[in-house]
Amino acid sequence: MIDLRPIGYVIGLLVAALGVTMLAPLLADVLAGNGHWPVFVEAAIITVLTGGLLSGACANGVSAALNLRQTFLLTTLVWLLLPLFGAIPFVLGATNASFTDAFFEAMSGLTTTGSTVFSGLEALPEGLKLWRAILQWLGGVGIIVVAMVFLPELRVGGMQIFRSEAFDTMGKILPRAGQIASSISVIYVILTALCAFAYGFFGMTPFDALCHAMTTVATGGMANADASFGAFGAGVHYTATVFMVLAALPFVRYVQLLAGVSAPLMQDRQIRGFFAVLTVVILLITSWLWGREGQMTELAFRETLFNVVSITTGTGYASADYMTWGTFPVVMFFFIGLIGGCAGSTACSVKIFRYQLLFASVKSQIRQIHSPHGVFTPRYDGKPVTDDVLNSVMAFLVAFVLSIGALSVLLGLTGLDFITSVSGAATALANVGPGLGVEIGPAGNFAGLNETAKWLLSIGMFVGRLEIMVVLVVLSRRFWRQ
Question: For a surface tag, which of 44, 103, 315, 328 has the fewest beta carbons within 10 Å of its beta carbon?
Fold first, then answer.
């Protein structure tokens, strides 16, 4: 029987912490003088009291060790329960959203998916704009870091929570998970501050600069305008591109860099593979547009660069409606959304290292077929890859593809067309943001979908954020019988 007290204690603290963060949008509304601030007073009281009561009720279980099963269950419940409380300001606030829409928006925010059901974003109160940004910023690495702070109280090696989210720590570069968490949080804050400053330099208002910096570094993609980044100019586009790339690289490499060790950053195979993918895709789409239009302008190059980086990293911003670019770019955008950035970053989706391991395995099999008597072992970064690692990667890829297929069928059964169903399933499970088609493409949003489809997509975002296997483990009979 799983002891739920340590899990309830940590979740209670996280819920209460989420309630405290509601003071920031409350202050934003007060300073803006829009009269919307009482919404966040109510939401904060409900959230803090609920979290505090839950934590207090489970405090007698703090001395118990948190084992791997409890850690998996904790991780799963955190991503289910926090959106419930994150949705409260949307229900009580100016959007007057239904619970379905509010939960969808909060789940999209915390999982850094970036899909939205709201339109008229420019007219939203400042507090709600900031709240959407905070949800994404916390979802990037903030919740993981906060959890790592509490785990030492439970006398457990915090590395377990990194494992449960496939959060690659690159060889455990620091002796304690708490040190890793604190170092990553510092990097996260620094990148956010630098991004906000750069946005302000290129013309964004201080408020917009802060909100968009938070959603950029989180690779979340929620913007303060219906036109997303189409509302801004070239300087903002290039700035966003740089910081989306930086956020998609392994954060522990930045920790090493600050410690004076630059070689791992330069030699990381993931990073090299990530830049290679971006370069190839940008060249292909640029060449397509060049051939189609007969000339290549700075605007066409910038829009290609920005949108390719945005979708590949799973950020989901859009500076143009790439659905009008032709069939080839649209197909490319669908597939690059299934690639993702590097493990150990805020980027989502499959991630580069899994494809690299897959190709290494395929290469080994081809050589084995060519020379049946030889012994060929897949290698990654010069080191042999064990069978359990390969099995894990293969299992994830199979589960990922099957999940997209199953979710697509379920969405189709709700009445959605083929393109909307398939792209919606893919963008939810990969936590990318926009789908394809007129309704949920870069020029649309998810508001027009039926409630069943929204709940299915919310589940897809949740499963995708936990990288599928964690959810399958928790749902297995063996997990509960042990």
Answer: 328
